[in-house]
Every structure is written in C-alpha cells, then in structure tokens.
Amino acid sequence: MHRQRRFQFSNTKTGDALREIIGSIEREGFICQPRADIWGRGCLGYNAAALINLGSLLSMVILSIGLIVFVAYFFRALFERTGIPDVLFLLGAGILVGPVLGMTSPADFGKAGPVLSTMALIVILLESGTDLDLQALRGALRPTLTLSLLSFGTTSLVIAYVGWAMLGLSLLPAAMLGVICGCTAASVVIPLVQMVDMGEKARTILILESAIADVLSIVGILALLDFATSGGISAGRVAGSTVASMLMATVIGILGGLGWLLVLKIVRRITSSMFATVAYCLLIYGIAEQLGFSGALAALSFGLALSNHRAFGLDRLAHVGEIGKLKAAELNFFAEIVFVLKTFFFVYLGISMQFTAPRMVWLAVLMVVTVCLARHLVVMLTMDRDISRRDAAVSAIMMPKGLVSAVLATIPLQQGVVGGEIIRDATYMIVLVSIVLTAALLPLYDRPPLAYFYGRAMARFAGTGGEEPRNRGP
What's this model's pTM, rounded to 2 decimal places? Predict the structure, then answer.
C-alpha cells in the first residue's frame, strides 16, 4: 500500500476547488481514484503512486519530442545525401506510431494538434514570403493564375468523377470531394520547393499557386454547402467572394508588414524579441481569418512586405531608411522554427491518417495518378517557355494535398451531408497518396528512365532539366 499524504486547508472552499481539479485530472485517466476513508473535513488526499505515473508519462512525452527532432535532423542529412525528401520519412514515422502500431492517435493531442499544424502553415508561409522578390512576383502573376485555375479545375473534375462513378457518391457530394482535394498544400509544397534546385520564377509560381488554391477550395466548399441548403448558387457571388478574399487578404498582409517595419527598430530594443515578428504574423493571420479572408495569403503577403519594403516605397518616409531587410539572424531563426514545426506537422499528419477499406486505398491511388497526369498536361499548356525543363518537370510533379484539404474534409460530415464519412476517408487517403507520390517522384524525375520522359515531354521549355540526370547519390 502506497503511503497516503494529506494537506489540511483552513478554507473549505479552497479544498473543494482543489478536489474539483483533482477530479477533472482523474477523469482524464492521469490519477487513480483516492481512497474514500482519507477524505475528511477540509482535507484533500491523493495517491502518490499516481503522480509518479504522471511524471513518467510526461518524461516519456519529452523524450519522444527530443527523439523526433533528432531523427528529423538525420532525415534532413539523408535528403542532402540521397535526394529523398525528409517529408516522406516524417510522414512514414507518423503512420508507423499511429495507425500501424497504435502507440498514439490524434485524440491524444486534443486541440494542440490542429493548432500546431496551423501554426506550422503560418510560419512556413511567412518564411517563404520573405524569400520572394516583388519583381519576380510581377512576372509570375499571369502564369500563376492560369496554372492555379486550370489545375484546380481539372483536379476537381477528375476526383469528383471518380467519387461519383466508383465511390457511390451522388453528384453534389462528389463535387464537394473534388473541390476539397482541388488545392495543393502550401505546408507541403513550400518545404519541397525549398529543397530542390529551382529557378526563382518557377518557385514563386508554385508558392503562390498553393496559397491561391487554398482560397478556391475554401470558397468552393462553402458555395456547395450553401447550394445543398438553399438549392441555388450564385456564380457572381462565388467569384466575388474569391476575388475579395484574395485581394483583401493581400492588402491586410502588406499593410501589416509595412506597419510592423515602422516599429521594428523599437521592438528590437526589447530583450529576446526575435519571436515578435512571428507573433505579429499570427495576429495578421487571425485578423484576416476573422474577417472572412484568406489568412494564408495574408501571412504570405506579410512576409513579402518585410523583405520588399523598398519596392513599396517605405524607405522614402522619414526615419525608416535604416531598416533594410530583416536581419540574417532573424531569417535563420524563422528557418529553425519552420524546421521544428514542419517536423511535428508531418508526423502528426501521419498519425492522423485513417486506413479503412483496401478499396479506398486503390481508388485514392487511381485518383492521384490521374490527377498527376492531368497536371502534367496543364503545366505544358500554361507555363511560360522561358522556364527550364527541370523547373517545368518539378512543377508538374508538385500536386500534394495537405492541411486545408484534411480540415475541409470534416465539414460535410459535420453538416450532415449524405456521404460525408466517405468524403472524409477518401480525402485523408488522397492526402497521403499525393504526398507520397510527390515526394517519391522528386528524387527520380531527373534519373533514367524518367529523365528521358521529361526531356521529351518538356521539350518546349528552355534550358535543360530532363535529359541529363544529376548525380545526387553518395
């Protein structure tokens, strides 16, 4: 019998409050039921062994966090040596400890999992925005919009058709599935394009496309849900909502970034203020989302304003000419935060995967492969010819789904849409297969036999990138 310890409280209300706290912790399974005979007037008792078990659990969590980060560094080194993206290994690690071994589940993370995933997306967009050049952005707008619209449309149609023809969904739920999976994932695309050797224009196009496609998916699913409840849909209102969401989010992000630069010198006087820029970006994202606009585009535009303030004319104002670009230490700090958050995001995404029927897996593979082939055609039709063949090949491969699709997939089920569970399970599987296929093709596209295929398929583009494989191996 473990020794029982008692604490005496002169204030009975204090004892009652602490009993309630212990009771709530006990209901979560951390503390065993105390013995009835030790509860006295104004007393609080607890089992010391249960607290030891709680400490052991916490130490195991801390150990796991440290292990995940160190393994992520190993995966990064492996990518630099072999060219295999670390995303693939992180996702596989999450699947292993989650669905395969059952060591953990998304429920164990509570609300912390989705919050950390969203924070990872925000910081990834912030860092990528600081790496964009406004001049390159202007030249990339037209091909970005064309690629975004055509890729989103073809992907939505392909997935919606398979959902209708092979998953037994009616037309409206099938259209919801297509729209949900029509976007590419910024949280996946941006880390991947930063790992591979790409030209600035092509990289800018892919980053912008991932942010714009998120808006299209969000507006699209809301429009279809409105149609399901009201029986009608206004094309003008949908188009207006899409344009307004993108434009207003961009304005909020740019104004927020320029305003932040005006006070950044003052903020830097405060000790340990390096995280302040990230915190301010979280505010910008939250404000944009609360106003009904795209928080992702706002975060991306915020980063763009921070590194392109001279192009916006901010240096012409008095007392701000000394600001310049963000300091190298701050940019390195952003990169470190992105690395850590990205690591936990992909592990959590793997843990969140749900494997239902084997038929769902094969249908997801069919949909993703068909979407990949369709995207190759879209890239060949829309990308400018001054893009290198290597950049065109990477752009054609880059079609992963991610956080936004996984979140949107739960909405039809919550709204009581017939087939909502099928939409959710199919989306999760499409997210998994698309990430795996994208990450698997990246180290192989410039090696035989794919190098020959891309050399011929992308022959209309300038430069090289498909004919001669690069030696990434040891």
Answer: 0.76
